[in-house]
Amino acid sequence: MRARVFSLSIRLLLIILGSSGVLLAQTKPEDEEIRVDTDLIEVPFVVSDRTGKPILNLKKENFLVYEDDKLQKLADFSATSAPFEVALLLDTSGSTLAELPLIQRAAQNFISSLRQGDRVSIIAYRAQREAGKANALTEVIIPLTSDRTALTGALSRVQTSFGTPYYDSIVQVAEKVFKDPPSDQFRGRRALVALTDGVDSTSITDFDEAKELLEKTGAAAYFIKVDTRDYFEENLLGDCNLTKRFSQSQMRRYYKRFVNAKVEKTSNFCELGDFERLAISKNLYELADGEMDQLAKSSGGRVFPIADLSEARLAFKKVADEIGTKYSLGYYSANEKRDGTYRKIRVEVKGMPSGTQIRAREGYTAPAN
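Given the sequence above, the corresponding structure tokens read:
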């Protein structure tokens, strides 16, 4: 009798274990593809008709994404109603010194125009004196938050500086504001919004490094480009002891890039004639314009030029409106090589009339072993 009970118990146990195995197989098939979030390629984009009007309410099924002309499988999709995370960079140097209140009001209007679920971080510049010398530093005034009261308080703490650590501030956005992977609701929905003329004067970082780090975050880059060239050049000419000066960093960048010469050629600003000062200024501003265009185009963002800060409020509204019409998708690349190569991204829309336009992130650099 005991033997029969023991035998039945063993058979019952085997049946239970076998059933458990079936359940496990059902919940985790052998062909299930296991991926990690860090491999997800995030692509923010805007869809508009032939007149430039945004097209809303499209579905995941409307889109195809290609990497190096090879169709990829969509793994993630967010509609235009999903929230965004925004790094708001305020250039508070140079010609903006007397117009800080105007910048603060424009930034406040921008924050107020975002949606309830959007999160914002504020980055700005400040002066620090060491050994009697003023240095310009970039500072994250407040990390990402949806608390509008806290953001208003942060804006009141924004200061000014006598230099422009513009490249360094982009690095701060990448390494501090967007240092952690986004939560599910913000995947593919991050943006840098910068009010600046883009002319760097004091950064330790160079543009290529800043660009590489920002691209890794997948953030779309928007620039409200302030035209400060006339103001700067009006104060650049004449007695060198009374005028504005180029920083050593700017002179080094000019001679290395445009003259192919060492900065030692003329490290003394007073040795520069008015004509050469204007030539340096022209090239530095054109370089800044090109860098902003490059960052915006490659990330799926835009540049909004303004003549002066009085136009900043309207430009900020345009940026907020576009963020509110942005889709995003994600995919795991079929190319699993970790070779550090640049890969082109192309997004297509199905079932839409001729003339439909897409502005999207153009590509990314694959990780390298």
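Residues 85-321 form a domain with the Rossmann fold fold (CATH 3.40.50.410). Try to locate this feature in the token string yourself.
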